[in-house]
Amino acid sequence: MFENLRLGAKLMLAMGAAIVVVALLLTISNLRAMDDVIGQAERAELEGHFKAVADRITLQSRMAESLASLTASIPAVQDKFASGDRGALTAMLQPGWGAMAQGFGAEQFQFHAPPATSFLRLHKPEKFGDDLSSFRRTVVLANESRKPTRGLEGGVAGLGIRGVVPVSDRGRHVGTVEFGLTFGQGFFDAFKAERNVDIAMYLMEDGKPVTFASTMGKTPLFDTAALAKAFAGTAQIMHVNVPEGPRAVYAADIADFSGKRIGVIELSMDRGRYVASMADARNTALLVAILALALGLGLAIAAARHLTARISRLSESVERVASGDLAQPVVGGGGDEIGQLALAVESMRARLHNLVAQVRSHALAAIGSIHEIDGAVEGQAATSSEMSASVAEITSTMEELSASSTQISEHSKSVVDIANQTWEQSKRGAEAMDLVLSKMADIQHDNGNSLSEILELGTRSKEISKVMSIINAIADQTKLIAFNAALEAASAGEAGRRFGVVAAEIRRLADSVTDSTGEIETKVSQIQDSISRLIITSEKGGTSISDGMAATSNTASLLGGMVDAARQTTSAAQQISLSTQQQKTASNQVVVALREIVAASSHTAQSLARIREVSHEMTALSGELGEKVDSFSLETAAS
Predict the structure, then answer these.
(1) CATH number, domain with residue 197
(2) Residue 6 in 3-state DSSP?
(3) Whether residues 256 and 372 fall in one domain
(4) CB-based burial label for 607 (10 Å; 0-12, 13-18, 19+)
């Protein structure tokens, strides 16, 4: 359905819907913002009232502490309290107590002995001496710390505002003095009268609220669960409607002097002015939204009509172009999107005008060209047939050449294999010759070492000969000495007989030494002869080894040359094989190419026949194209 509407109607519907949505969203947003602002102001006022309650309790606590401090600073009071003179204290303070009770709302005025024993109650003089330590923590704390204590605290008479101050006499702690101010229904009535806000306090006992004092009845406005949350530390706020009008209710916890939560304060405030402000804001927002909607719809209708008129003019121009009238220009006007669209359509019309004129001119030229192509195609067909026959003969020759190349390639592969084997064998021979040369060098080195050892042995043998000569000389001297000793023994007679025996033994020993050295010299001489022959043999062997190494080195050089020659032969054989492979591949490629040329020639002949048919068809189509082009109007009727 929407697709069938005119563009102007679509624009008005779209713009109207957009304006309605925007106005609605702005109105809702403004109303929510106003509701938040009013809610924050309302909460701030309730929190201000709650703070006023806490401030009033703090102020009353300070007043009670001030009264107690004033009393504790009186020297006469200190003296009488220290001496335990209850009667004197009563006579001194009883007249002032009445004025305090009437003028300051004091309910209690009493003295305590440590830790928390009642010494004097001016509000009940007849009652004293009872122990309060089990429930009066302010008194116990003030006596222990000897510092003032103030705040809310429960007692026998109920919850009250306490101010407890320690009393000292000449630096000695004697007890505490306390003032208790009114914290009951009167406190709450006075707060309501001053601020026009209902107030109630509930003590939480076993999770249930018990009304302590209230200006709005015994039943809380909040339920038990909400009061429990408030007592746990989460402030609660709600709106209720009562016969008196709309109310804002606030609940928060309240603590005693030690910071321990003891109950919940509930405040109820008239929120009629906030409701009225919200209603005024809502009415104003709705009025502004209606005015904005009306103005926006009016502007949307005017804009839609203007756009529709321009689009209609542009549509008429496009329809003229579509019908073939390319003579009249398209006039749009304006610099917006519609104006740009009109310029684009005018550019398209101008290009179509030029294109149709060129097509008309080219169609006439194409007819003549097609006739020329037809004649050229017939000549090309004859030439193609002759070329196909020539290529077939060349193909046959190249196939024979390819077969020869294949045989040469196979033989060259065999040559490469043989060359590779020769190269490998020559390399192994060169490696073996290098090993022989290395072993010969080791033998030459060992022979040199042996020759050195033999020469050293000859030198040592000569030294042995020298030593033998020395031993022979010593033996000769020994025989001479033994001979002389024998002569002396003979001349000595019987007394020198034993000495003669010894001399004979010495001479025989010297003869044995001479014989032994002679044999040793003979052996040494033989050894020296053997060493000389061995030296000559070793020198000849060294010369032979040197000659063998030279010959081996020459052989290794020759084998190295053979290896290089074999490597070059292998490389050349590989190059020849590669060349024959490439020649074979090239021959095969030429044969394939020639076959493709033959096939292409055949295909060309077929294509030329088809081209001849197409040229006849193009002649007919060119005539039809001329008729179509003539349907376009390229000049105005006046021209």
Answers:
(1) 3.30.450.20
(2) coil
(3) no
(4) middle
What phi, psi does 362 have (nearest 5°)? -70, -30
Question: 146 burial class (0-12, 13-18, 19+ CB within 10 angstroms)?
Answer: middle
Beta-bridged to residue 169, according to DSSP, are: 172
308 belongs to a structural domain:
no
- β-pairing, 117-121 vs 106-113, is antiparallel
Single residue among 263, 278, 293 that ends a domain in this structure = 278
> Would you say residue 293 lies in a domain?
no
pLDDT tens track for 304-325: 677 777 777 777 777 777 777 7
Helix H segments across 84-235? 86-103, 137-145, 185-195, 224-231
* Measured distance CA(294)–CA(502) in Å, rounded: 170
Q: Looking at 223, 255, 278, which one is the last position of a domain?
A: 278
- Map residue 522 onto helix, strand or coil: helix
Whether 505 and 481 have beta carbons less than 8 Å apart is answered as no
Q: Higher-confidence residue: 244 or 144? A: 144
Largest CA-CA distance found in the chain, in angstroms, rounded: 195
376 & 262 share domain: no
Q: What are the C-alpha distances in Å from 138 to residues 65, 151, 216, 529? A: 12, 9, 31, 137
DSSP state, 131?
B
Per-residue b/e over 407-439, b at no fewer than 16 CB within 10 Å?
A: ebbeebeebbeebbebbeebbebbeebeeebee
Q: What is the pLDDT of residues 441-499, one digit of tens each?
A: 887 788 788 778 878 877 877 787 777 788 878 878 887 887 787 787 788 777 777 77
Nearest residue to 109 (alpha-carbon basis) of 183, 181, 185: 181
Whichever domain contains 376, its CATH number is 1.10.287.950
Q: Domain count for the chain, please give it.
A: 2
Residues 391 and 481 in one domain: yes
- Say how far apart CA 520 and CA 269 lie, in whole Å: 149
Q: Which residue has the tokens 């060359």?
A: 419
Rounded CA separation 399/202 (Å): 120
Helix (H, G, I), strand (E, B) or coil at 74: coil
Residue 514 neighbours by CB under 8 Å, 6+ apart: 472, 475, 476, 479
Q: What percent of the chain has pLDDT over 90?
A: 25
266 pLDDT tier (thresholds 50, 70, 90)? very high
186: Cα separation from own chain's centroid: 68
Helix, strand and coil percent figures for the chain, each rounded to 5: 75, 15, 15
Specify the pTM: 0.45
For residue 498, tell me if it sits in a domain.
Answer: yes
- Torsional sign, CA 97, 101, 106, 110: positive
Expressed as residue numbers, the domain containing 222 is: 27-278
- Residue 89 belongs to some domain of the structure: yes
